[in-house]
Design goal:
By secondary structure, this protein is an alpha+beta fold. The protein is built from six helices and six strands, in the order H-H-E-E-E-H-E-H-H-E-E-H. The chain has a six-stranded antiparallel sheet with strand order 3-2-1-6-5-4, with helices on both faces. The N terminus is likely disordered.
């Protein structure tokens, strides 16, 4: 799930930008601002309407809200903390990628504040949706297929680990992922992949506990 912004705009505590990519080196960007880059997609450009309808119907049947919530924020925080990454996401693929769970640095940390939605064809999570299995990128520049991403060029994201949220019915609801501007040693890739896979199982367990309508 790389993070693709819209036009730069100041960030306020009450209204963060919708799409704001993280960056560890903020020399080109003032703290609290987003960075504008061109569209980047590594997954499918269009999502079939029938698939989206099934996703909504399943979420409704399970009684799962599509709004941000503290439980999913806690799951994102635990995943990111365990991995040692700056950002963690629980992401439902709706009309947009919708981050119902989000962990990021504090607003006064000097890092860019990430919003709760992003175009569904941006970044690496669409690839996870398509392949229906985890995508470990310890260093995105190590793979020509995934290094050609405007997010990499503009904001310097170097590591991404994501896993799909697959219901027992076979419907893929979304993803979980962590990203960071620092690359990770290849020797850590398996451990980090297992962290996001375990986090995806935790999210699906949480969804299964939701009141069924």
């Amino acid at each position: 799930m790389a993070y693709q912004p819209n036009d730069p705009q100041p960030v306020s505590q009450t209204a963060p930008p919708t799409l704001s990519p993280p960056r560890r080196n903020m020399r080109e960007t003032a703290p609290g601002q987003s960075v504008s880059v061109s569209a980047a997609a590594t997954g499918p450009q269009d999502q079939p309407a029938a698939e989206l309808t099934r996703r909504y119907e399943l979420l409704k049947r399970l009684g799962v809200t599509t709004a941000a919530n503290e439980d999913c924020d806690d799951l994102a925080r635990g995943m990111a903390t365990q991995a040692g990454f700056l950002y963690g996401f629980v992401n439902l693929f709706l009309e947009e990628q919708t981050f119902v769970g989000l962990h990021q640095p504090p607003a006064d940390s000097g890092y860019v504040i990430v919003g709760r939605t992003m175009s569904r064809d941006h970044g690496w999570c669409p690839e996870v949706m398509s392949r229906r299995k985890a995508l470990p990128l310890h260093d995105v520049h190590a793979s020509p297929r995934f290094s050609g991403n405007a997010v990499v060029d503009a904001v310097g994201i170097r590591s991404y680990f994501g896993a799909p949220l697959i219901h027992d019915s076979g419907t893929v609801l979304g993803t979980v992922c962590v990203i960071d501007p620092e690359k990770r040693p290849l020797a850590e890739a398996r451990r980090l992949r297992d962290i996001v896979i375990n986090a995806s199982a935790q999210v699906m367990d949480h969804i299964a506990r939701a009141p069924v309508r």
